[in-house]
Structures are given as C-alpha cells and as structure tokens.
Amino acid sequence: MEIICTEMISYNGSARSFFMEAIREAKTGNFSEAEELMISGDENLEKGHHTHAKLIQKEAAGSMPPVGLLLIHAEDLMMSAETLKLMAREIIDIYKRISDS
Fold first, then answer.
1. By the 8 A CB rule, do 27 and 95 touch?
2. Do residues 48 and 15 make contact, with C-beta atoms less than 8 angstroms apart?
3. Residues taking part in catalysis
4. 10-residue averages of pLDDT along the chain (101 residues)
5. Where are the beta strands (DSSP E) in 1-101?
6. Helix orientation angle between 31-60 and 2-27, rounded to the nearest 10 degrees
7. What is the CATH number of domain 2-100?
8. CA-to-CA distance for 53 and 5, rounded, in angstroms?
C-alpha cells in the first residue's frame, strides 16, 4: 500500500510541478516550452492515474487495506494536479491571447 501511495505522490507531484512551470514559461512568452511542460505533466498525471487504478482493482477484489493519511495525501495531490492542469491550460490560453494582441 505504501509503495502504491508513494508512486501516486511522486507522479502527481511531478505533474503539478510541470503544470506550474508551464504557466511560468507562458508568462514569459515561451509557449513552445509551456506546451512541452504540459505534455510532461500529462504523462505524469496519466501514470498517477494508472497507479491509482491499482487501488481500485484491489478494492474491487475485496483486498483493500484500511485508508490512512498517506492514501488521503496521495488522493488529494492527484485531485490538485488535475485541477491545476485545467487552470494551467486556461492561463496559458490567456497569455497567448495577450501576446497576440
């Protein structure tokens, strides 16, 4: 359980960092780098979801261990990464519009 949670934390934390860095790059007008960072963030978020699916499969099989703070943290980080991805996309689009003006 700890390994799965740690994987989720690692992948989703990395995804969140990539999305934040993408916003920073877009702010400076470096949109190609921002897009590359968004792709890297997406890849990490996908890996985090894949790892999360392992927990869903365990629960479906009836072998889910009790929920602890580590899992709650991993789930929270996944949700915040997903939210930041959506916000990063919107912010990057805004910076592009401003740049084109």
1. yes
2. yes
3. 73
4. 93 98 98 98 97 89 84 95 98 96 86
5. none
6. 160
7. 1.20.58.80
8. 11
